Amino acid sequence: MVAAATPQPGWRWAALLGFALIGPVALPAGGADRRLPELRRRSAGEPWLSTGSHSLQAAPERRAPALAQVRPDQSLRVVRSWHSPGGQRWLQVESEARRGWLAA
Questions:
Q1: CATH number at 48-103
Q2: Which strands sit side by side in the sheet containing 54-57, from one edge to the other?
Q3: From the CB of residue 24, how many other CB atoms can be counted at a distance below 10 Å?
Q4: pTM of the model
C-alpha cells in the first residue's frame, strides 16, 4: 500500500506566507489603489521658486551685466521665455521689485 503524498511543512508555510504578503494587495480595503493620481497643472499666475543662487541679468546673454543675485527658494514670476539662436533657453522673471533674465 502506498501512502498518500502529504505536502512538506516548509511548503505549507511558504504558501501561507506568500498569500499573506501578496494577497492583501489586491483586496479593496488595504491594498493597491487602482486609480491614477490626479495631475496638477500649474496655472500661469503661480510663482516659481529658485533652486539655487543665480545672477539676474539685464539681457538674455552670458556677457550681460548682473542686476542682482537670486537667493535659493526666492519666489519668481516668469514673464516670458526665449530661445537664443545658439539654442539656449532664457526666462525673463520678476523677483520682488526687479525684472531680469535667467538661463534655464
A1: 2.30.30
A2: 48-49, 75-83, 89-95, 98-103, 54-57, 66-70
A3: 12
A4: 0.54
